[in-house]
Write a structure and sequence with these properties.
By secondary structure, this protein is an alpha/beta fold. Helix content is 25%, strand content 31%. A hairpin with an 8-residue loop joins strand 8 and strand 9. The longest helix is centred in the C-terminal third of the chain and has 12 residues.
């Protein structure tokens, strides 16, 4: 499985395109604005079909390009039900953002929750619920690869903002300690913005949530 990190959209949100060239299949984690035009050439180059879209959470910068991706691919969409309103009726975000963003709702095919497990590319994937930044923030853990796609729960040396509706610093700190810091220290964290980091590094040096 090859992982493409693709910043896209108005605030350069990280999308992750996971491609298994032998199976000719791909999964997209999060769908910021203008993401389809960036991933389509990558899929075409290896003749891979995008089969699923995994949404880490319902904030607009992670879902803005989702409707277009689904139109182009008929990909199955999975997300956490706590963000159902944000994902299906994203215009409510325009109210607290104070601007028109031209968002389209996305129909979710499968709702996931804490400790759910499924297979992707022949590998096990574990879902961990990490609310606090957004009620439905989840991360997708590939334990065999020591990789976790964490959405906006934690960044390199920082954490997701908690001042938007549904945010809570106390809940986010608890989520990070109980769901992220309990992963093996060598686990690489792939966040929704900025560079990758590692569990051990954040446990030792994150100034917002010390271990």
């Amino acid at each position: 499985m090859k992982v493409h990190t693709i910043p896209s959209g108005m605030i350069q949100t990280n999308a992750y395109l996971l491609v298994d060239e032998s199976r000719k299949e791909a999964v997209l984690i999060d769908a910021p604005g203008e993401i389809w035009e960036k991933i389509e050439p990558l899929l075409s180059a290896v003749d891979a079909k995008l089969t699923e879209l995994w949404i880490t959470h319902g904030h607009w910068d992670h879902t803005q390009g989702g409707a277009e991706v689904v139109r182009q691919t008929s990909a199955k969409v999975i997300a956490h039900a706590a963000d159902r309103t944000l994902i299906e009726t994203p215009e409510i975000m325009e109210g607290f953002m104070g601007e028109k963003l031209g968002l389209e709702g996305i129909r979710v095919d499968q709702w996931i929750d804490q400790a759910d497990k499924f297979r992707a590319f022949g590998e096990d994937v574990e879902v961990r619920h990490v609310p606090g930044h957004c009620p439905g923030n989840v991360m997708f853990v590939f334990a065999a690869r020591n990789q976790a796609f964490v959405g906006d729960a934690i960044f390199a040396g920082s954490i997701g903002r908690t001042d938007l509706p549904g945010g809570s610093f106390e809940l986010l700190a608890q989520s990070i300690r109980e769901q992220i810091y309990t992963l093996p220290d060598e686990t690489v964290l792939l966040p929704g913005h900025g560079p990758t980091t590692q569990v051990a590094i954040e446990k030792q040096h994150n100034p917002h949530v010390p271990a």
